[in-house]
Amino acid sequence: MPQMTDLYQVVGNPIAHSQSPAIHKAFAQQTGEDIDYRTLLLEVDTFKAVLGEQLRSGAVKGANVTVPFKEQAWELAEIRSPRAELSGAANTLYLDAEGRINADNTDGPGLVADL
Q1: How far apart are CA 33 and CA 77, in angstroms?
Q2: Are the beta carbons of 109 and 82 closer than 8 angstroms?
Q3: How far apart are the first and last CA of the chain?
Q4: Which of 68, 69, 107 is nearest to 87 (CA)?
Q5: Is 48 one of the catalytic residues?
Q6: Is the pLDDT of residue 2 over 90?
Q7: If you count Cβ atoms within 10 Å of the first and of the last residue's Cβ in the chain, which end, N or C, has fewer?
């Protein structure tokens, strides 16, 4: 059986300027991962329905979330990391083995690492 390419995306509005697809595709190539990483432009009133369905159906394995959706990503999640709970926002969503949407917020640790 051929291996399926996993789909990931960065979701925002605006999003066309994002360099995330190029960065993640390059990293995946370096580590031998078979992924497709795309941008997804959504409207504020469709974020939870569209992304929730994509995650639950398995259409996407995970998503990075940017403005203006970080608070909605937190609301969409069924399981939240301590960092997401503390900030009340999430920038990473994925479906776990039990089919629950999980959220994390890596903004703080990323900033500290950059400093």
Answers
A1: 26
A2: no
A3: 45
A4: 107
A5: no
A6: no
A7: N
Catalytic residue chosen out of the listed positions 25, 48, 61, 70: 70
Residue 92 and residue 57: Cα distance in Å, rounded? 17
pLDDT tens digits for range 65-86: 999 999 999 999 999 999 999 9
CA 84 to the chain's CA centroid: 13
Give the type of residue at 92.
T
- Encoded amino acid at 43, one letter: E
Least confident of 87-91, 99-103, 110-114: 110-114
How far is residue 47's CA from residue 13's CA, in Å, rounded to a whole number? Answer: 10
Rounded (10°) CA dihedral 18, 20, 25, 28: 180
